[in-house]
What does this fold into?
Amino acid sequence: MPSDFIYDDVPYPSFVFPQTNPDRLSTLARMHGIDAADPAKCRMLELGCGDGTNLLSLAYMLPESRFVGIDLAATHINAAKRSALELGLANVEFLEMDVTQADPAALGEFDFIVAHGLFSWVPEFVRPAIFDLYANCLFQNGVGYISYNALPGCHIREITHGMMKFATRNISDPREKVAAGIEFLEQIVDAAEEDSIYQTMLDLELEQISERTPENVFHDDLSAMNRPFYFEEFTDLLEKHGFQYLCEAEPSELGKKAAFKFPEGFSSDVTAREQYRDFAIGRRFRTTLFCGKDLAVDRDFRPERLKGLRFAAQLETDSSDSTANDAPVSFTTPKGNKVTLNHPLTKAGLTAIADAWPRALKLTDIVGAANEADAMVTLGYFTQLYMAGFLKAHCLEQQFFSEISERPEASRFARYQIERGSNAVATLTGLNLEIKDPAIGRLLYLADGTRDIDDLTQSMLEFAAEFNAEEMLDPGEMKASVLNNLQAFADAGLLVG
Ligand SMILES: C[S@@+](CC[C@H](N)C(=O)[O-])C[C@H]1O[C@@H](n2cnc3c(N)ncnc32)[C@H](O)[C@@H]1O
It folds into this structure.
């Protein structure tokens, strides 16, 4: 029998959200001068946590931190509790609860409170209750995160939402609703004036909707509730509840923001500038970080703030022996972005970081012994390289194996995700990695620390034979492929032994 809460009938597929990782929140807050908590020993609350995937991955990765997840759907919370039990995670707790009914005193206080995919999708009266929880449960130096649909970009989305809702108003079965909604949209795209701006715009929306899972389309595009916000409206709400805007959770935003040109004499007010940019880029989604309004937020990126952080980068260099002099050296990312530098300490630092990949190096270890002036030049370069996306910053010391051991062992949580049929796994660097090939998923699952390379090769030959009974598989080639894939696991931060 259907329940009276739609998420119980159609559970939402959950993933890991790197934007909500306490390492990311704390790093960004520290860059803005906030003395945010150590992610390795923090307390974090997630509102609307779905089936708990995000919190479970964090609880696995950060055993000395504690996590609490709240969700109204019994189906989600039961699945989350079962997973915590099966994974033996005692540092995460899941509560089946309406956020409007949550008792702040019983929940306690947290360093980080996050709500991903909740705020735009709840009825109007729930939003103040969400902010009340932040106001009552966030420590004084705590960091909040809320994601929401944004305007003006979502005006375009509203057009297709309206069409799909109109077409499916008399259909109750969720799958039929999704199929009928998409089919109707296809008809409208065909009926629109050929090659008009309107047709192109609808077609682009249709393309994006067709790529989502039916569950996502059902909850996101056919949702009865889907309220986008102008940034200015959102900051008004923040202020009303005692908070101030910090930044967005995507580090790449910082670089784009720095490069953005405002009209001469445009307001220096952060809200006005953010709103202007949203208008210019047609923004449709925000992942906003905020903190108490009494904290001193410093938006000038002071290079010295990077000092205590760790940096990681996957970079190819054209020469490693010219770091001592001031000959130019180029560093290239896997996407082909290239930077050429001649400052010796910066070149040496970047080379050390590239050599350490996928591990992150503490910046104090790189600039620690250098004279102050030189160190400041390197910190300045690193600030720019971070904002340009060449470097990843962390305040957490990540724990994983970067080499292949005799009996490789992959993250128990990632293996659990594969076991449960997921096509994406959480890495120990806090990212979500899509596993497109089932054979790779199988290898990850089998790498449980009990099998050596020959055992893994034999198991993979048997697995391949199931799919390719006709073809003779070469054991030598399979062993090379196993080693290659294990190295890829190591580089992605998936190995614990
Ligand atoms: C769109 S899903 C997002 C789930 C997950 N955070 C994600 O982004 O994948 C919204 C979640 O919020 C939960 N939810 C909706 N209203 C709620 C309320 N009033 N109190 C607690 N949870 C709620 C739903 O059950 C659902 O799991």
